[in-house]
């Protein structure tokens, strides 16, 4: 269980790092930042609100939340707001580029850590897998459709789209794939992976 919380905390913090880089965000962060411009809620609070809203879409998909799903909403919301409190705004461009690269790397690493803990999908991942099962479309097609849609809505709301958005799309998958086998949980007593709770 510590691996789950470490991964989720790192994920939320990496989101804050990319926000402070101000060079472009991941699709869901673009949506959160866009919503932030139109509400009085913090970035982290909006990640939780969006997460709970996405959970409502699980109902027709017959997906069931797990402990990991709830932890995903709470821990990421808290750690992203904490990161935004600790990291100053208005940094020089070289520092922002460094933050962007560090944020993308940390985000991909964190996905490997919390997915490897095998406590169930987060709201957005569950939406993707549920929609894929319902429609018969591949995970790649469904994920691309969802993230492009989210990115477009977030951009229209004023969320930050830029070079970082492109770099994130290109880098997060390969980096996550590299680290995932190193963090995948396997029981020391039973052959095979631990089932999702």
Automatic annotation (TrEMBL):
A Pfam family reported for this protein in Swiss-Prot or TrEMBL: DUF6198
Presence of the UniProt keyword Cell cycle in the record: no
Segments crossing the lipid bilayer: 40-59, 71-91, 97-117, 145-171
This protein's UniProt keywords: Membrane, Transmembrane, Transmembrane helix
Signal peptide residue numbers: none
Coiled coil: none
Protein name per Swiss-Prot or TrEMBL: YitT family protein
Lineage: Bacteria, Bacillati, Actinomycetota, Actinomycetes, Kitasatosporales
């Amino acid at each position: 269980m510590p691996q789950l919380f470490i991964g989720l905390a790192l994920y939320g913090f990496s989101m804050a790092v990319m926000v402070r880089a101000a060079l472009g965000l991941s699709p869901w962060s673009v949506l959160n930042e866009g919503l932030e411009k139109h509400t009085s809620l913090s970035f982290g609070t909006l990640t939780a609100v969006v997460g709970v809203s996405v959970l409502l879409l699980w109902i027709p998909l017959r997906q069931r939340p797990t402990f990991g799903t709830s932890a995903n909403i709470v821990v990421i919301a808290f750690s992203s707001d904490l990161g935004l409190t600790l990291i100053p705004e208005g940094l020089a461009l070289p520092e922002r580029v460094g933050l962007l690269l560090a944020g993308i790397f940390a985000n991909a690493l964190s996905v490997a850590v919390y997915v490897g803990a095998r406590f169930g999908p987060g709201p957005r991942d569950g939406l993707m897998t549920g929609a894929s099962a319902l429609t018969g479309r591949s995970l790649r097609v469904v994920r691309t459709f969802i993230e492009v849609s989210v990115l477009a809505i977030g951009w229209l709301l004023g969320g930050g789209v830029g070079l970082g958005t492109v770099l994130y799309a290109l880098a997060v998958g390969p980096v996550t794939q590299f680290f995932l086998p190193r963090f995948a949980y396997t029981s020391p007593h039973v052959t095979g992976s631990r089932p999702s709770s």
